[in-house]
Amino acid sequence: MSPSVIINQTPQLRHTTTATTTTTTTATTTATTTATTNIILIFLYFRFVLRKFEFVSGAARDERERREKARQQVEHVRASLVRWCRTNYGEVFTAWIHLKVVRLFVESVLRYGLPVDISAFVVRVAGEGNVDKVFDSVTEEFAKLKMGNDGGVGGAGGDEGDDEDANKDENGDTVYNFVSQKFSVEE
Questions:
Q1: CA dihedral 11, 15, 21, 27 (to 10 degrees)
Q2: Half-sphere CA count of 17, side-chain side, radius 13 A
């Protein structure tokens, strides 16, 4: 039986009711404290983190308002960021392509030497499977620019055989008779 049932069932005289109730309430408080302590020990055994909680009547409403204000602020900042990205995308893309062109120029000067007499063009390939076909076509078109084993033009450094290793550099990458830079643009 719970202590509250004992309190309700205990018949007492009017003048001693206060003392008995106080004693019973103290016993109830002790039993509750013991039960609370046991529960706390169980939670701590399972590594739960216990914190004091005090109920504040308007706290939930204040929390909702704070979250709504934070959500509106995030939407405002996100809209500003998207607007900024759209504004500056063209400039960043132009700078990226400029770097690609500078790298193409430098590699062609390093490979073919001076004087600079190059033609640069951009080829848009439809589909991933067509990249090899485009490289084969461009390789056939520039077959007259045979690469020698010394890296120069004209094949003066080695034999003219169909050796597959003749088109490899020191890193094992395929070397073509032209300079190329690959990049992809998502639409």
A1: -100
A2: 9
Q: How many whole angstroms separate alpha carbon 39 and alpha carbon 35?
A: 6
Residue 155 · residue 147 · CB < 8 Å = yes
Residue 183: Cβ within 10 Å count: 8
CA distances from 76 to 34, 68, 88 (A): 53, 12, 18
Residue 83 parent element (H or E): helix 59-112
CB 109, CB 116: distance < 8 Å: yes
What is the chain's Cα-based Rg?
41
Tokens of 30: 């002790």
pLDDT of residue 172: 72
> What average pLDDT score do residues 52-61 get?
86
CA angle 160, 138, 142 (to 5 degrees): 45
CB–CB of 147/177 below 8 Å?
yes
Strand partners, 153: 147
- pLDDT, residue 62, reads 93
* Measured distance CA(147)–CA(151) in Å, rounded: 6
